[in-house]
Write a structure and sequence with these properties.
2 copies of one chain form a homodimer. Chain A is of the alpha/beta class. Chain A has 12 helices and 12 strands. The first copy, chain A, has 3 domains: 44 residues, 434 Repressor (Amino-terminal Domain); 129 residues, Rossmann fold (3-Layer(aba) Sandwich); 131 residues, 3-Layer(aba) Sandwich (Rossmann fold), CATH 3.40.50.2300. In chain A, strand 1, helix 5 and strand 2 form a beta-alpha-beta unit. Chains A and B meet through helix 4, helix 5, strand 2, helix 6 and helix 11 of A and helix 4, helix 5, strand 2, helix 6 and helix 11 of B. The structure holds a DNA duplex (30 and 30 nucleotides).
Chain lengths: 335, 335
DNA sequence: GGCCGTTGGGCAAACGTTTGCGCAATGCGG
DNA sequence: CCGCATTGCGCAAACGTTTGCCCAACGGCC
């Protein structure tokens, strides 16, 4: 048999559909007895309101869209986890679409989510923030929150972390340990977080009065392979760095593996610091010193910002700060 | 201004809404000229059909629900990626909810997705397959596909991999390498895949005529910590194993790290084989020999099965097979 | 006893589509 | 020239809710 509708309930309870609707919403206009009676009936018959019909009239689907570069990236996964948890608590569902780190696909993903009538859009680590500029004035009424990125525009919000401070802190820490040549492996060129971490690295280097030559900076895409390649390049230098700060843990982990293969002892011959603190970092050999990103908290913050915008009391942006977690991959330089 | 509706288009094009609807669906009952005209108009005005309204009448939301234990698990993430890609290609959206490896939350997640009117439900590595039994006869019309698990019942399908064969193959490989005492670190007790891999391990042991004593089998939850604990236990044995097969890569990676800390050389002193082939396994020290699960393919298969059920031509189950990927964490035993 | 305020509930419109059916015009064959 | 099939399109119902407004009954007040 077909699912039971509000009309079925009305017929059985001998009242009008509107009364049933109100009773289920605890509307005070319905007498307490009727309310109880109807709610009991609904319960008994296993009534499930049609979200679709409801959405049609209210204009809200209670669904939020998330576009992520790739759930396979541990950072993204953790954020997504926070998003999902917070969304669920608020009674929202989460529609997800992946961009595969590709700007064009990212926009396509956003469009698809919009087609599904999401109430809000959350973009994790966008590669093409500027393409959302039209969202505000072209009549897209859904709030957009950019995570780890930003873009001016009406109805566009952002939650980020203070990447500069994190990178700066890492450099300062390495300097305090006694390192004088500190390398950096940057992340994807387009990304804001990559730019900021690089900038923080430079600030730290300057603040400590260290060698700021460009040969100490390598570029990558934030993958383990990049750690590999960067180490090779560093080792070819006349004076290789004694410590390396990486754009993210994935890169650092790759660099760690490459160092092991090259016969380098970590942290004896080379100190390595990552960024993000993904779960596996704690189990690397040696355990990775890294800058923790409050990933789940960022996810939750994104939901808060989004819901606030939906509720008409927008929070323009939210900046969270990370914290250096000390493990064993960084130590005093050899001599 | 409010979004443009099919009625707006009708008024502007001087036709009825039904004509517009049909024209946009390329219905042959509408003359080619009108069709072109209307489609052009829709394009020009940026018309976006209301999926909600459409769903209300068609009864389909073109949304599939995925309940996952935890996206943070690399295995889950890869599967999800396959699911999302295949779903998108088929024009479906993906609603996601997490169970946090908790049976009660898993069911709650499924209910939530159902409330959102998903057309089908995919459960990755269910911890409580039996609780879905009521789905068929209690009037839930949505097909349910269990990934890496199964449950008899109408409208319940399953896609799995041949875990026994995979574990068997791994054991056979280790035996061929010269190992005679081969340990096993099992996964979560409830899980089907854990049971099957254990069973495959036992079959392999028997087939090779090796020591099958229970002291060679440890239990865990599939996390890096479990690898740690298992190694400790193995080392306390009078005759520790010379090789260990792990329930999954996460466990194996943890075991690898613990071995390094204990001063064991891998594979010299101990060979380690994982299961799943998550991305980081290739970058472990040493790179992990593991049984590959065709994760993305499983995700795609789940979509296929689900869509087939929706299309009225159900595929009852789908079994994929893995393949041993040889790297450096397994080799000949020392002497 | 008339008036008015309150209480409890029903009517019907509205949300934006899809689709079965009806119907006019057109073309064709006989 | 008539009848009939075909073509092209409109009418209206239906999907399951929510919600503004109306209305009846009832009680209290003067």
């Amino acid at each position: 048999m077909p699912p039971v509708s509000i009309i079925d309930l009305a017929r059985i309870a001998q009242v009008s559909p509107s009364t049933v609707s109100r009773a289920l919403q605890d509307n005070p206009r319905i007498s307490p007895e009727r309310r109880a009676e109807i709610q009991a009936l609904a319960e008994r018959l296993g009534y499930r309101p049609s979200q679709v019909a409801r959405s049609l009239v209210t204009g809200r689907t209670h669904t939020l869209g998330v576009v992520a570069s790739d759930v396979t990236d541990p950072f993204v996964a953790e954020v997504l986890k926070g998003v999902e948890a917070a969304a669920r608590e608020a009674g929202y569902g989460v529609l997800i679409a992946m961009s595969n780190r590709n700007p064009a696909e990212e926009i396509e993903a956003a469009e698809i989510l919009l087609d599904h009538q999401v109430d809000g859009l959350i973009v994790i680590s966008s590669r093409a923030p500027e393409r959302y500029a039209r969202f505000g004035d072209e009549g897209e009424r859904v709030p957009l929150v950019l995570l780890n990125n930003e873009q001016p525009g009406p109805n566009i919000y952002s939650v980020r972390m203070d990447n500069e401070a994190g990178a700066r802190e890492a450099v300062t820490y390495l300097h305090a340990l006694g390192h004088r040549r500190i390398g950096f492996v940057a992340g994807p060129e387009g990304g804001r977080s990559s730019r900021e971490r690089l900038s923080g690295y430079r600030q730290g280097i300057r603040a400590c009065g260290l060698d700021a030559s460009d040969e100490l900076i390598r570029h990558g895409a934030g993958l383990p392979e990049d750690g590999h390649a960067a180490l090779d390049a560093f080792l070819r230098l006349a004076q290789p760095p004694t410590a390396v700060l990486c754009y993210n843990d994935l890169t650092a982990l790759g660099l760690l593996a490459a160092a092991a293969r090259a016969g380098l002892r970590v942290p004896g011959d080379l100190s390595v610091v990552g960024y993000d603190n993904i779960p596996l970092s704690a189990f690397a050999v040696p355990p990775l010193t890294t800058v923790e990103q409050p990933k789940a908290a960022m996810g939750r913050a994104a939901i808060e910002v989004c819901l606030a915008a939906l509720g008409g009391e927008p929070i323009s942006e939210r900046i969270l700060s990370g914290q250096l977690v000390l493990r064993e991959s960084a130590g005093q330089p050899a001599r």
